[in-house]
Amino acid sequence: MNPGKDNRRVRYTKMVLRESLIELLKEKPINRITVTDICQHADLNRGTFYNYYCDAYDLLAQIEEELYSALYETTVRFETDGITGELLEKLLAVIEENRDLCHVLFNINSDKTFLNKLLELTKEFAFRYWAEHNVNNLSQTQLNLLYSFFANGAVGLLCNWIAGEHDVTKEYLAKTILALGIKGAEYFFNEQPATLPVIKITNT
Description:
By secondary structure, the chain is an all-alpha fold. The protein is 70% helix and 0% strand. The relative contact order is 0.09.
């Protein structure tokens, strides 16, 4: 028996099953995907599938957990290092490495459970960071509105980038998100009163 060979076989089998599920998710939601569908796509038998997973939901949950853990390792550093372009680039690098999976998970027609979990994570660290710079003492309602605006804007950019609608590097996208989101938020946290400027619209 060669343990190394067995481990490689297991990794390969799991990779094929993982990729098969992701491909199927591009065509239909998880509640319409069966173990048989996955096995036929992967050219593996059902017995092999059940060696590692209970059903399609279990496979998806493990895939999501791996991605979440990878994103968490970078996101948790926001609390100590602040929200920087370097950390945003690291987050985008993880997303880029898992582009097909993220395209499925972030898609407008997909189940939003994973995306909501990720947004709650970033919200937690954003609020802690903002609390240290909130010299205007914004209310919780104002902070929630602020986060919703910037978070949904960032997600929109990410979805379009993942789908290939924005032909820019992750470095450029990180700078854009930082400039539009974090730098924009500084308006509310500077020494000036947190009031919105009057915008005059003139007919041309």
